[in-house]
Amino acid sequence: MKKLPVAVRIAVGISVPVLIAAGIFVFIKYGSPPCLFHAMTGIYCPGCGAGRALRALLEFRIGDALQYNLLFTLSIPLALLYLIKGYVSVIAGREVMKRVRITDRGAWICCGVIIAFLILRNIPVKPFSYLSPEVFL
Q: Global pTM?
């Protein structure tokens, strides 16, 4: 990793938390936008319900978050790990955690899981209908 100048690291260190706080404020005040894919097709995309799941997580309602979008909620810890790792690496000016590489096979597996989730959550019979975000409204 190329070492960034101190001024850039300080700017990132200050601006990222401020932007996250502002984003959370706007999200809580105005909510998430409706899913255009669902509005145009009537099919639940893999992200449908993620906004409600995020709101439920911010309110510490883990069960509701899992019901709104299981895949999104379960992927949050891994996404946070990568984001925090990147943030701390920029602030420290060096890699602070061992680099984890995603292989081509791993990327294809992730794509397969997302596509399977897309298909399964749109099957209108139990138990697949439990993956639909509308079931729990």
A: 0.77
